[in-house]
UniProtKB/TrEMBL annotation:
One of its GO terms (molecular function) is ATP binding. The keyword Thylakoid does not apply. Gene3D superfamilies: P-loop containing nucleotide triphosphate hydrolases (3.40.50.300). InterPro entries: AAA+_ATPase, ABC_transporter-like_ATP-bd, ABC_transporter-like_CS, ABC_transpr_TagH-like, Bact_Polysacc_Export_ATP-bd, P-loop_NTPase. Signal peptide: none annotated. CDD domains: ABC_KpsT_Wzt. It holds the Pfam family ABC_tran. This is ABC-2 type transport system ATP-binding protein. Residues 26-251 form the ABC transporter domain. The keyword Phosphoprotein does not apply.
Amino acid sequence: MTEEIAVKVSHVSKFFRLPTEATNSLRSKMINSLKGVKGYKQQYVLKDINFTVNKGDFFGIVGRNGSGKSTLLKIISQIYVPETGNVEVSGKLVSFIELGVGFNPELTGRENVYLNGAMLGFSTGEIDGMYDEIVEFAELGEFMNQKLKNYSSGMQVRLAFSVAIKAKGDVLVLDEVLAVGDEAFQRKCDNFFKEIKEDKTKTIILVTHDMNSVKKYCNKAVLIKDGLITINGSPNDVANEYIKENFSTHKNESGNENSFGVSPSIPILDIKANSPIILKNMENCSFSIEFESKEKKNLKLELRVSDDVSSALITRRVKEIEAFGKQSINYILPISILNNIQFNVKVTITDKDTEEILAYTTEEKALHFKIDNSANKGKGLLSPSEAVSGDWS
Ligand SMILES: Nc1ncnc2c1ncn2[C@@H]1O[C@H](COP(=O)(O)OP(=O)(O)OP(=O)(O)O)[C@@H](O)[C@H]1O
């Protein structure tokens, strides 16, 4: 069965002009123009963005502040025109990406629902049909005849969000940052997202910084970095890569740059060699994984041993443990089938319950070994049946 496309983003690029000098007189403007000085530079915010969202998808867009997510949502919602490329949308698109658009503080809640609905392209009859559901979801029944300017900011957000999600659109574009509210309203939104995830006639595009939401609701996601899509794939891969990206800008308490790859709950992660790192005439390579868990947690340790030259994975082992405090776990890797090879050892520690990555070994902190043993016959991994495994101790 071929999937129906809801939104197709093709080769979209966008730049903004940033002033490079202040020209506050007509004279300097004229001189600059004669000299060919433009007085601004083009800052590319999106660079050749391509992806497809199918009907029924719950599609996540993830990226750090300033990576270009809101600009992309505005292009999808036809608020901005891209410099290159285009966006094709099938069906009616409803977006909730900027607060206050389509709302007038001098009008009542009720009038604002009709105004906003009209701006989204719905007729009065259509809004009549949606009105009760919108008010019920927003829990603002008794306030609908009051002017919007008398609403608290939370109430205004609730109304705007409710119009967006209860409007009968086919594609809903949401910036989750705006979907704030008290705990009860958040729970309601959570239920709504869970329901809509199962509704294969609705398509959602959600920008969020909350990786639990990505894993919980989305079936596909993209990660944007500096205006480029760096991953287009499974929500788990995107969420984990985003967490790693964020980690690399967090220094640990000592401010030591070599400690990148740790988090407040696992502030230390090291791999220490117990055997020499140049292995001659030896059968085993041994090392210990040392880390500290600030809280009692069920953890998943993923050990990866890879060839330094080809990056091929030699072995991957997973161990689940309940850990609290300082830990040291030994690992013995038999090397009898390897020779003339350099390899590295890295570890990723994940919270077993939430699947969040809590710490991982960065390139700089990987432990490297070299095998120089003429008694061993092979080079690298000989065949899958001879895969190197090893033991935890
Ligand atoms: N109207 C504008 N004029 C000039 N620059 C802009 C404009 N809008 C956005 N930018 C710049 O474009 C870049 C991307 O901004 P954008 O708001 O799309 O990022 P974002 O990923 O949504 O960030 P956040 O997570 O903080 O909302 C930023 O460097 C921002 O300063």
